[in-house]
Description:
- The protein is an alpha+beta fold and 322 residues long.
- 39% of the residues lie in helices and 32% in strands.
- The protein has 6 helices and 10 strands, in the order αβββαββααβββαββα.
- Strands 3-2-1-4-5 form a 5-stranded antiparallel β-sheet. Strands 8-7-6-9-10 form a 5-stranded antiparallel β-sheet.
Amino acid sequence: MSQGAIFMIVVAGMFPAVIIVAVVVKLIEVRKASRWPATTGTVTNSIVKAIKNKPGDPGYDFSDSEVFNQPFVEYEYTVNGRKLRGSRITIGEKTSGYELETILARYPVGATVTVYYDPANPKNAVLERDLPKIVFVGVGCLLLFFIGGPLVAAAMYFHGVDWLRDHIANPDRAPFVAAATGFALLTLLFAIGHTGAIWRTSRWPTVPGRIVGTDVEAFRERYIDSDHYTRRTLYKPSVLYTYEVNGRQFTADRVTLGLVMSSTLPLIARRSAARYAPGKEVVVHYDPKNPGEAVLRPWHPLHILPWLVAGAVFWLAWAVAT
């Protein structure tokens, strides 16, 4: 086996390994929590809390939304005559946006709840000590993607190369044609899925919203320059707006679906941000199943780019093959 193939296998295996380690650590924590004693508590606060990623936070560079709406449930409980406060809901730390309404309805202000606490550190407490089933479904999907995906892609590539050697004029070009065709197919699948998401988003219900903050944020990004890694500063507009659904106020920052407008020139980011002055009234499209997910403009002319890339690479593969 070549060194390149070994390297690719090691890289592909790193992602499942990280996922498995994270799951094992969380299962150990769940097992410990299963032995925690319980006490009675009272919910003192139950609201939607918006959390915004800042430059330097993990995932900031790649996300088209830096704001996450989470249920915030605060409760009081007593351990050994000592009154304590907690706000942790589940062992899983974060909850899915689709669970937000259900969780807040389950824990209204004034409700009596069962609080499970760590006897070694009573400040460490939760309301639910079992992992939601959706966590295991999500882990299974990720493992299937990171393990099954590369295996299927490798099998299709090598079989495709063998088939192309017998069907194109120059067999030596078969690896390039197979790689280009595979890339074009992946881009086409992405374009189809993304266009479907845009179509569904454009049919989301709308509510009036208001711009509450506009800024230009700078972050550092690593990229390859002359065969070595270096860093550059990128700038992107940050537009915060609020809206109300079912009597609850949400905050969001997604302007266009799946599109991050960043540049090395701060002037471009400032011009984009200037279109949304604080106080401006806007129309907000929100997901009825997950009201914390919203967007101002579902469609943008640049959304046609994946279709153009797929078509261009298909044409390149055909031209090289013929």
